[in-house]
């Protein structure tokens, strides 16, 4: 039998086997079984999803996940600092209990929207999705309230309430649509509501309108309505939480790792006082100080830094020393970009143009809509950033390069 005849025979046998009544019957039975299995599946409510799949939300079920919770709360304080409303963020840790405190404007536990008997702050702590017909109700309520409102305070309050809900996780970066928003972590931002669900005890105290307000939760469920604690002249928000050991286990937070994160944070947000276990970290030199920390030489006659705002991008860059191999660090809205990105590429272009290969260079950009090039958000992908940074740094770097003694 020739090769062509043998191939034809095999093809006929395969055709007969694939179209046999027995095989088709087995496929129909299997299809019905799979269909029934899918019909029996029920999607998890988001609170159950947080509890059953915590690593998807916090990056880890142990110490690293706990650190993500802490940095999520710290990120809100950094937002307050960038808005000119806070000067410090303090973290105290004792076992599975954590306190995060700042002196910002205070979490809005005292603001009620009139749609149902919860505060704006409670909604953000408990919900990812609004109740049915919420947006229609808010529109009607806002218009009615606005027509009756006579004070600037009331009007501003209504404006905030129109954006009071997180419709779903990460549809918008923040509940009240403020921008830019900081994620002081290598992990994706998750919001406060999932943090609340993952804690056995979660207590919020906030100063608003010369009154201290408080509300308590357990695993995302409010134990009481917001209530006034006292009147006074205090400021800021205090979060007190106890981790749920069923979610995070018993491994303690790595204080050394968190201290290093705070040390770097003090450099990329100069002026903000980071306090961990009563130890203060505050930088006046900014990224130059971070370059020095990352440098192996610790001393150099070449150090340069530059800050500006260009095309609505806050740019902070520093370079240190000279080396055969350069170490580049890139941050975008507080998040470290382990794989660099277009902001790092822009700085590299600008440095190459003046023939400077520094030992260490660090860049931090803050802007409204960072786009990352991979799911882990380890590389910044905004295409316009590279050319914007290259042009913004051209003249300042040329001026600094011209001051060198070996300048041509």
Describe this structure in words.
This protein has 408 residues and is of the alpha+beta class. It folds into three domains: 3-40; 50-280, Heat Shock Protein 90 (2-Layer Sandwich), CATH 3.30.565; 287-401, Ribosomal Protein S5, domain 2 (2-Layer Sandwich). It has helices at 3-18, 21-40, 46-52, 54-58, 63-82, 120-126, 134-148, 152-161, 192-197, 245-248, 255-268, 287-294, 342-353, 383-401; strands at residues 88-94, 97-102, 199-208, 211-218, 221-222, 227-231, 237-243, 273-276, 279-281, 303-310, 313-320, 327-332, 335-336, 360-366. Strands 1, 2, 3, 4, 5, 6, 7, 8 and 9 form a nine-stranded mixed beta sheet that branches. Helix 7 (134-148) packs antiparallel against helix 8 and helix 13 runs parallel beside helix 14 (383-401).
SSE layout:
Layout: H1 3-18, H2 21-40, H3 46-52, H4 54-58, H5 63-82, E1 88-94, E2 97-102, H6 120-126, H7 134-148, H8 152-161, H9 192-197, E3 199-208, E4 211-218, E5 221-222, E6 227-231, E7 237-243, H10 245-248, H11 255-268, E8 273-276, E9 279-281, H12 287-294, E10 303-310, E11 313-320, E12 327-332, E13 335-336, H13 342-353, E14 360-366, H14 383-401
Parallel strand pairs: 1-8, 12-14
Antiparallel strand pairs: 1-2, 2-7, 3-4, 3-7, 4-5, 4-6, 8-9, 10-11, 11-14, 12-13
Helix pairs in contact: 7-8, 11-12, 13-14
How would you concisely characterize the structure shown here?
The protein is of the alpha+beta class and 408 residues long. The chain has helices at residues 3-18, 21-40, 46-52, 54-58, 63-82, 120-126, 134-148, 152-161, 192-197, 245-248, 255-268, 287-294, 342-353, 383-401; strands at residues 88-94, 97-102, 199-208, 211-218, 221-222, 227-231, 237-243, 273-276, 279-281, 303-310, 313-320, 327-332, 335-336, 360-366. β1 and β2 (97-102) form a beta hairpin.
